[in-house]
Amino acid sequence: MLILGIETASVQVGCAIGGHEGVIASFHAARRRRHVEALVPAIEFTCRQAGVTLDELGAVAVDIGPGLFSGLRVGVTTAKTLAQALRLPMVGVSSLDLLAFPVRHSSRLIVPAVDARRGEVYYAFYRHVPGGVQCLSGYHMGKPADLMSELQARGEDVLLVGDGAHRYGEEFSDLGPAEIAGPPNVYPSAAALVALAHAKALREEFVAPSKLRPLYLRKTDAEINWESTAGWGRQPKSGLGEEFGRQAS
């Protein structure tokens, strides 16, 4: 089965095609968030390099985040449109899983940290297991100082990956036995997406296009603005006060 992988959760646009023989073609480029203009030509280029047509695909995989809102929307929408048009099943993989996978052989605690803007990062904890890597936690969002405190409490050797680790590298420099992985591990990889999606496809862990959703750990600006506007003019009940917003998980 040939799988097309689409990765747009970061400033980078990535595509890859592969199957049981591994990745046969891939493309990655940073276009300063111009995902709309770059993605379709990237898919066409990758297909030409692989020597396949869209009709030969068996599934479509996509990075579901967390990551940039605009990039995620472009990638997920494009992937769903292709899957629906070609009547193909889909596989969704988290950007944090994609960052952990290439360094899965490390004996350290693997911590992907994606830049969430606004002084925060998306992160999770992973450890090497036979045949791959296992997520030890859920997906979280917090300030680098919060992540630093968690890692200090664990007291383990740490391998940090992702653009969030690089952006806030100075804050993690006092962590002690910790390393920040180099440039190849700054952004999620479409090649890693195809590899993980192929394993899921073998287990038939597919998602219908209509059911696939981006993984947002923070509300969009539109949602925040709507809740703020909707809260105007509301009065406290029984003099106890009322909470107008909910904190994003």
Verbal overview:
By secondary structure, the chain is an alpha/beta fold. The chain has 2 domains: 3-94 and 188-218, ATPase, nucleotide binding domain (Nucleotidyltransferase, domain 5); 97-185, ATPase, nucleotide binding domain (Nucleotidyltransferase, domain 5). It has helices at 35-50, 69-86, 95-100, 144-154, 163-167, 169-172, 190-202, 221-231, and strands at 3-7, 12-19, 22-30, 59-65, 90-94, 109-115, 121-123, 126-129, 132-135, 140-142, 158-161, 178-180. The strands form 3 sheets. A 5-stranded mixed sheet has the order 3-2-1-4-5, with helices on both faces. The chain has a 5-stranded mixed sheet with strand order 10-7-6-11-12. It is globular, with a radius of gyration of 20 Å. The protein starts with a strand and ends in an 18-residue tail after the last helix. The relative contact order is 0.17.
From the N-terminal CA to the C-terminal CA, the straight-line distance is 37 Å
* Biggest sheet overview: 5 strands, mixed
Molecular shape: globular
Spans of at least 5 consecutive residues whose pLDDT stays below 50 are: 222-228, 232-249
Secondary-structure content class: alpha/beta
How many β-strands, per DSSP? Answer: 12
In the CATH hierarchy, what is the architecture of the largest domain at level 2? 2-Layer Sandwich
Q: Into which percent range does the helicity of residues fall? A: 25-40%
Rg, Å, rounded: 20 Å
- Report the order of strands and helices: EEEHEHEHEEEEEHEHHEHH
Proportion of residues in extended strands: 15-25%
Give the rounded overall mean pLDDT.
Answer: 88
